């Protein structure tokens, strides 16, 4: 299958069946989203959503975060991964937002990446979710699913290479949605260890399925009727 056709069928499926995907992180404004995304690095959204209500009660604005030390923040985020580093990042993030961005979350990739704890992936999430820009954040799910489906070549070995390939083929207006589609598909169906191909709606376009799964399925000998529960012919 040609790559353009694979992309087209992937986009058609999700546009039809899941037209309005959203991030699973709970947030009420851009400040809360960027804090939640920083906390979600190497951690599940579920875990982050458990702790952010109290964190946002304690530190409701960038100014509150700016006035806090890492030690002040740590007790509220201790159950996420890498809490020491993240507490330092959040304290620094609050300070920079207040000192250089008038306590607003900036809207350019370059400015976002100046904030502590904010790399290209986090900046792209903010660009896409808050500012609805055609930014493709490549996390572990997007990386894995793009490769398995065959949307990107094997030579795309870094998140940046995958990002560039995806934005080349996906229309700008669909990039923010495609980011969520790939994440959610990776989180619930095309999971890392054992992709749930038997319930996946994308088997007919999936390169991994064609290569690794279809040949096995074809080679499973049919059970005699009395063993498969079906009545004898
Ligand atoms: S068919 Fe399997 S490997 Fe391919 S996208 Fe679906 S779950 Fe992932």
Automatic annotation (TrEMBL):
Cofactor(s) the record lists: [4Fe-4S] cluster
InterPro entries per record: DNA_glycosylase, Endonuclease-III-like_CS2, Endonuclease3_FeS-loop_motif, HhH-GPD_domain, HhH_base_excis_C, HhH_motif, Nth
Gene3D superfamilies given in the database record: Helix-hairpin-Helix base-excision DNA repair enzymes (C-terminal), Hypothetical protein, domain 2
Cofactor notes: Binds 1 [4Fe-4S] cluster.
Keywords, ordered alphabetically: 4Fe-4S, DNA damage, DNA repair, DNA-binding, Endonuclease, Glycosidase, Hydrolase, Iron, Iron-sulfur, Lyase, Metal-binding, Nuclease
Keyword Membrane: no
Binding-site residues, [4Fe-4S] cluster: 190, 197, 200, 206
Enzyme class: lyase
Reactions accelerated catalytically: 2'-deoxyribonucleotide-(2'-deoxyribose 5'-phosphate)-2'-deoxyribonucleotide-DNA = a 3'-end 2'-deoxyribonucleotide-(2,3-dehydro-2,3-deoxyribose 5'-phosphate)-DNA + a 5'-end 5'-phospho-2'-deoxyribonucleoside-DNA + H(+)
EC number: 4.2.99.18
Domain HhH-GPD: 39-188
GO molecular function: 4 iron, 4 sulfur cluster binding; class I DNA-(apurinic or apyrimidinic site) endonuclease activity; DNA binding; DNA N-glycosylase activity; metal ion binding
A Pfam family the protein falls into: HHH
NCBIfam families: nth (TIGR01083)
Function of the molecule: DNA repair enzyme that has both DNA N-glycosylase activity and AP-lyase activity. The DNA N-glycosylase activity releases various damaged pyrimidines from DNA by cleaving the N-glycosidic bond, leaving an AP (apurinic/apyrimidinic) site. The AP-lyase activity cleaves the phosphodiester bond 3' to the AP site by a beta-elimination, leaving a 3'-terminal unsaturated sugar and a product with a terminal 5'-phosphate.
Family affiliation: Belongs to the Nth/MutY family.
PANTHER family for the chain: A/G-SPECIFIC ADENINE GLYCOSYLASE/ENDONUCLEASE III, ENDONUCLEASE III
Name under which the protein is recorded: Endonuclease III
Primary gene name: nth
């Amino acid at each position: 299958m040609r790559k353009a056709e694979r992309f087209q069928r992937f986009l058609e499926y999700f546009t039809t069946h899941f037209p309005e995907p959203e991030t699973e992180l709970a947030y009420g404004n851009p400040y809360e989203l960027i804090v939640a995304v920083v906390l979600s690095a190497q951690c599940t959204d579920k875990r982050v959503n458990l702790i952010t209500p109290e964190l946002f009660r304690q530190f409701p604005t960038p100014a509150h975060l700016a006035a806090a030390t890492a030690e002040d923040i740590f007790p509220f985020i201790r159950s996420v991964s890498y809490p020491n580093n993240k507490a330092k990042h959040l304290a620094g993030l609050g300070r920079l937002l207040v000192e250089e961005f008038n306590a607003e979350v900036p809207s350019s990739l370059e400015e976002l990446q100046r904030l502590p704890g904010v790399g290209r992936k986090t900046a792209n999430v903010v660009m896409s979710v808050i500012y609805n820009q055609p930014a493709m954040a490549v996390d572990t799910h997007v990386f894995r699913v793009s490769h398995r489906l065959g949307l990107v070549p094997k030579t795309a070995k870094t998140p940046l290479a995958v990002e560039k390939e995806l934005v080349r083929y996906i229309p700008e207006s669909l990039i923010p949605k495609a980011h969520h589609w790939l994440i959610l598909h990776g989180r619930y169906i095309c999971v890392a260890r054992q992709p749930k191909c038997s319930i996946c709606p994308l088997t007919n376009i999936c390169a991994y399925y064609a290569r690794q799964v279809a040949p096995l399925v074809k080679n499973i000998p049919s059970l005699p009727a009395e063993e498969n529960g079906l009545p004898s012919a």
